[in-house]
Design a protein that fits this description.
Helices cover 29% and strands 31% of the residues. It is of the alpha+beta class. A hairpin with a 2-residue loop joins strand 9 and strand 10 (208-215).
Length: 268
């Protein structure tokens, strides 16, 4: 077998850890940007930037479910196979979620489904090859081709995925995040994102430019949070407020128990 040996526990941890890295609450800068700073400039006319930001924050905290789409073009992320450059995940306050993540540097992608304590993950061939060195990667990719890895969050190896899918934990991070006292928010000219009219709220923090795009009409909701500068280039989109997370789960015929995964990897 070419390359260094990889034990089954290490591989499964790599898969689970990739999911944890996608937790929206761990995206640096974007969560604090959602907390309105006390010093606010207003261009006059209509609600102030402060009022729009506060209502958008309240509606995000009150959301029973939401769909998050993360795009990360930061220089440091693009060079790493272990960091996600894209995520599209629907999640709710009950810990249910469904979506996909794509890793950087041709590190592949993983489909993710969680209902209650049950978790399904389906890595693609590129992901397996990126995580498992040498010829073993191709063998593992073929062994689990088009099949989901199924397990429970009670398994220590999958527990981190519960945090990824926890909207309540994300909302708590938004609610308790520290605001930047030297940052001001200013209203920009109304624009459109995917057919929705929004008002950009612009600010600067630690040399990074942040923009919160909030719907022009009530209820004022956050549609996009973007941050640029200092090596950071990230966008987080928010859609489908209150829309149920897809409930379909893979059939047993398309799933492999995580325990069997470890056994089969041991023999590969």
């Amino acid at each position: 077998m070419a390359g260094r040996a990889v034990g089954p526990k290490g591989l499964v941890c790599a898969v689970a850890g990739a999911g944890l890295a996608l937790s929206p609450a761990l995206v640096p800068g974007l969560v604090p940007a959602l907390v309105p700073a006390p010093a606010v400039a207003d261009d006059g006319g209509g609600a102030s930037a402060q009022q729009l930001a506060q209502e958008a924050k309240k509606n995000l905290l009150d959301a029973k479910s939401v769909r998050l789409k993360l795009t990360d073009h930061s220089a440091g992320t693009a060079a790493s196979r272990t960091q996600p450059v894209f995520m599209d995940l629907a999640l709710d306050q009950h810990g249910n979620c469904a979506g996909i993540m794509r890793m950087a540097a041709k590190g592949g992608s993983v489909e993710l489904i969680k209902r209650g304590e049950q978790v399904w993950m389906k890595p693609d061939t590129a992901f397996w090859k990126a995580q498992v060195p040498g010829s073993q990667g191709a063998a593992v990719a073929e062994l689990f081709k088009n099949r989901y890895i199924h397990g429970s969050t009670k398994d220590a190896l999958l527990k981190g995925l519960a945090d990824t899918c926890d909207l309540s934990a994300f909302q708590k991070q938004v609610d308790t995040g520290s605001s930047a006292h030297d940052r001001t928010l200013t209203k920009g000219a109304e624009t459109t994102i995917d057919g929705t009219k929004v008002v950009p709220l612009k600010g600067t923090e630690a040399g990074r430019r942040s923009v919160l795009y909030v719907t022009s009409k009530a209820p004022h909701r956050l549609v996009r949070a973007a941050q640029r500068g200092g090596g950071t280039d990230m966008t987080l989109d928010f859609t489908d407020y209150g829309k149920p997370v897809p409930s379909k789960t893979p059939p047993a015929s398309q799933s492999v128990d995580i325990g069997k995964l470890q056994q089969e990897l041991q023999n590969t």
